[in-house]
Amino acid sequence: MIRWGLTTMRLAASSVALAALLAVSTPVLAAPVATAVATAAAATQAPSQAQPLRGAPVSELIARVDIPWQRFQLENGLTVLVHEDRKAPVVAVSVWYNVGSKDEPKGSTGFAHLFEHLMFGGSENSPSSHIQTMNAAGATGLNGTTWFDRTNYFQTVPTPALEYTLYLESDRMGYLLGQVSQEVLDLQRGVVQNEKRQGDNQPYGMTYYATLEALFPEGHPYRHSTIGSMDDLDAASMETVRDWFRQNYGPNNAVLVLSGDINEAKARELTEKYFGSIARGPVNTPAAAPVPTLAAPVEQVLHDRVAQTRISRTWAVPGLGDPDSVPLSVGASVLGGLASSRLDNVLVRDEQTASGVSAGNQVFQRVGMFSYSAMVKPGADADAVAKRMDEVLADLIANGPTQDEIDRVVTRYASQRIQGLEMANGKASVLAEGQLYSNDPDFYKKELAAYAAVTPAQVQAAMSKWLSRPVYSQIVMPGEREAYAEAAAAPSGATPTPAEPIQRVARDAAPAIGQVSNVVFPAVERAALSNGVEIVYARSTTVPVTRVALEFDAGVAADRADRLGAHTLMLNVMQEGTTTRDSKALAEAQERLGASVSVGSSMDRTVANLSAVTTNLQPSLALLSDVVRNPAFAPAEIERLRATRLAGLANEKTQPGAIAGRALPPLIYGENHPYGRSFSGTGDEAVIRSLSRDDLMAEHARWIRPDNAKLFVVSDLPLAELKPQLEAAFGDWRAPSTAKGTKAFDAALPQTSARIVLIDRPQSPQSLIYGGQVLPVSGTDDLLTLTTANTVLGADFLSRINADLRETKGWSYGVRGNVSTLQHRSPYIVNAPVQANRTGESIAALIGQYERFLGADGVTAAERERTVLGDTRGLSGSYETSFQVLGALRSNALYGRPDNYQETLAGRINALTAEQMDAAARAAIKPDSFVWVVVGDASVVKPQLDALGLPVEVRAAEAPKPAQ
Description:
33 helices; 6-stranded mixed sheet
């Protein structure tokens, strides 16, 4: 709550001081901290900085961003956009409705989002779940989303399924309500309320509500969150839901985009055929939403079960299309969005009083929200951090950004836009947004032009104009949460006066889906550098982008059991400075090139990734090479990143997923097994505190070396043009004289039996259930039959366990059970977030589903057909992007698969029988060996678990330790 009493006067005073700083102060920013060179002898001296790498002019990048389109409108007002792209036999179908949470009247918050869920329940002439029917049609990227300004529904389908998809989309646009029963409404009400609990249960999960209520006055359309309140969701009745549909879901209030393997003539024919008969509805004219200004600075102190204090400042600012919107977005990037941002350089790199910072301008149709924040480093003075972050903003407003900072922001933005053009649905979304919000599908070009033309003076003026007004400041401190507003046991909307029956409208039967051709995977080529490093290459010419993955046989499993976290800390430090570029210079170099260089790890592999526009490939490869081959391991950077890691570990102890993810692996693998640790690889606090510079350098020498590496590349350039550039970057790299690292997987696995480990996390409105076992299979085995069977059992939206807990009982937002494929012995892991008062019943239901499926109630003929059709038809949309192709190259290598593996899948899946699927599942999955980990409020959950008859061990959630 917002407190105005004496307790918060000191805090409010700091907000007044901020306003004064923004008006008159011009503080001098501290210089970035010096980093050390790689050699121990020069460890206290800053590296001699390499000459900046230069890329192509921004104008050249922007010229490559183009989405040709045609537009027409049906007589009923439906606007249709068509983008023809024949790169693959798929079409993205995206429907955007001009209605969102800002259009909800008082007492009906959350209705737009609730209705999004109802739209997936089937329609009058297709009563099955929309997800079920579209999955069988081979849809990929199938989903719907709701935000303040719109509700959208999208999927990418094989071309032979397009007509079928348009039939279904038109049926739920024009003929939905007869399928929405009181039972369906009550079920989806429960699902949405569990989605709300899942978000609220996270650290800082309640803070966005407070921000909206503080910034926007009563009655303002943007004052309430999209998810809504429990009370309003409880009150949703059949009549209010029907009215929402009738008022907002007419064709004249929608935009349909078809992007991919289609032309305008065919689009006209099909849309007229399936949508033309739908009657017009009312036109939603969004309510006026002026940009509010607070009468005086407001500062609010909240408490949550968090490990770090977070300080944030937020203003309401203009929305999309306002001339100040782009300058504010650029200013936010300079302030805290770039990796080399002002806040990063001062608070994170130099003074090291914050473990993380951010800034952004969240742009909506009518308004925006400009905010910046800092995570206070444990042990640091929060008031001093708040003062310093405000000084950094004040300096930026007083003096403006440099042209170089703006150029880096714009280059990064243009590069991201180019890379976003690979997916048919990505392009559809860009066109739909422009049409819906600005009546101009080419609005993205105007926005790009505005970015390219923005000047330091424009950024300075916009920030001075809008950020000199009173600010809303929020401080979230560790402590007890306030009482949680739960849903009613008997929602009022569940027992209304019965609604009048809907007169259904019969249509012709849905069209058949044609024969879907097999996926054509790009040809795989191989070569080698002069030092023996193998190159695995495939070509993708959709966009001028090159992706490189330099992979090492290491991963989280490379850590010794007594040195957990050493490998990933070494990788973190690698990215924060080389012998000729310190942390800031590395960040700036990526921004100037529009490139992304990152180093990370899975359980089995470590990878240095590069994503770059091909125009800037040569300098981008030089940067990747520098990061991989020449890390400085500067002492100052090691200490900074050590503190950041310790703060991260403290935060993990407040996050339900991280708590469960750290607890389960050692319970099923044993603590000495390479897989018996958190899959995040963040490690152990004592180890992180003890690691020396020599330890990290030795870790690098063991694993990051050419005789342990393989290059995977997907590019629009042919291999013949790529290879000389790869050779220049890595060909002269030689392995050190020290021994290469090895991993041992011979540790004995514990014999597990069904039991529960309850980790007490008080004040949790939801429980997170993890359950699992180690399977008798490895990733290098042929797992296709097992994973296909598990699609029916646990992995799919339509799986037995999700259909039960979400779609029948409404106790969860989503439940999955997956074969987590690793190179060696792989685990089966169930992930089930459920409402707290249904925790015990949920585990009982899960156990029952597994026992029945693995007993006499295996794969049915209908499930087998649905799964086989969906898995085979969906292949055409599964390798649409260079990122997807790169992932396939890497997984084929890791699991020992042939280069044409993806092209063999359809035939093999089609040949599977239900009996084969049942046999594979029954041989591998043993629910009586599952260890269940539950993270929840023990005072609520423990009695429920005791009733299950399984052994229950209760552990207290480990308290976060100070990072210093």
